[in-house]
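Recap from last week: sequence in, structure out.
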Amino acid sequence: MAYVITQPCCNDASCVPVCPVDCIRPTPGDPQYLNTEMLYIDPVTCIDCGACMDACPVGAIYPEWDLTGTDVRYASINADYFDKHPLQSKGMPNISVSTIALPEQDQPLRVAIVGSGPAACYAADDLLTNVHGAVEVEMFDRLPTPWGLVRAGVAPDHQRTKAVTDLFRNAAAKPALQFHLNVEIGKHLSHPELMSHHHAVIYAVGALRDRRLGVPGEDLPGSHAATEFVAWYNGHPDYADLQFDLSGERAVVVGNGNVALDVARILVSDPDDLAGTDIADHALDALRHSRIREVVVLGRRGPVQAAYTTPELLALGALEGVDVVVDSQDLILDEHSRAALEDPAAEPSTVLKTELAREYSTRVPDPTRKRIVLRYLTSPTAVLGAGHVEAIEIAHNELYRAADGSLKARLTDRTETIETGLVLRSIGYRGAGVPGVPFDDATGTIPHRDGRVIDPQTGESLTGVYTAGWIKRGPSGVIGTNKKCAQETVKVLLEDFLAGTLEGPASDCSREQLSALVTERQPEVVDYRGWQAIDAAERKQGREHGRPRIKITNVKAMLEVVKVHDTSTR
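Predicted structure tokens:
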């Protein structure tokens, strides 16, 4: 018997260094790591010690004998990965952690990190854990709450995934890290001011904006970005007051990545089940009054190329009271898709995604149940309605091989119209620029080379300016992918510091003076103790109602909690 990694896997590889027989793959150094759906344990090599289960930050690892329901399938999913990628290991302990020693210096290495999501927190943790020497980190976020998309993007019914914040709390508790929440760079402090107080600044501001469809009617009432809907049901203060029309029986989600499946799942989940999560109260109330019974998910390409991951698709089929519907005609594969599956290099996850779609196509839907309908090779051409969304026009696509060898989808003349009162576009996140920092509007990212921000005009690196996470590489990977990304950025930052190329803070720009400047510009700055007060208040309200927390979704209300806490502790 062996231990098995299951759906909540966050890919941050905390399990890898504790494995005494080095049987977890892919590791952050492997070519497959950046594109892997999850990590896997080799059942042949595993010695059942359980060290990986103890190290997993999101509770994704179980002994094989404890697997139940759809999780049973993960035993073969883990094994199939190693059939494709045989373990190359000497069976030696893999417990080394690279550390860097800083030379003695008159002042500590001072780093500002803008953002407080996974990439920002992994960067802070790396600086404070794996660097021997004096380091001080200042973390800034425009919201009074940290953790970025872990708080505002992970679906509320994925509570185990949110447990990764326990790792971030370990770094946050260190005196060398100070939080400056409710502080916006470009508004309260400028980029040059940050630079004058630090050796380096890391921008890890994520990617919260949505990509547009570019079709007529896209801006009709009832047509929204899925990013807004996700932020709304997660209680993000910027989106808490939005209204979504849930009065119709059908919704259409454009795009079929994991976010699209999250949105579809939340729309048809039993509100009583969601009531046990940290979903925002306003969203829970709206979903209790929702009349939506069917969600159609439109994928631009075929089932072989679908953007969702296997674990998310597998979990969809286990949703209580919901049918997953796939038309068998949509699974007639073209020559390109057949070739992809028959290719000896095809990943087991790609093959399994297609098998799962076929399994769903053989199930007989129950007309009394809600349903999620997965459509493939379709693209919207117009959103229709007189003053409000009434339907969406779609065209059927065909795949073709472009001149550069890539597989693309193009419209055909076959069209159809789907009646709906709600359209949610889920075709990707994109970043937004920070005043004073280079930004590539075409890609929605900060231009960089190995994490060093570059001047797009000259191609030269900007001294002391770095980037990490989605704003660096685009919206790719999962939570744990940001760990390797952040560590790569910290590595080049330290190389520059040791090479003496970073300019130190001015003598009149101490940590205390920075705090004074922040307070002068933003008197309502929230430190880590302030966030702990908000966190405690949310958890207390949650306990009273049998929930993990009840989120405070209004900034003024958050600041009132902080104010009361500060008054009571004086």
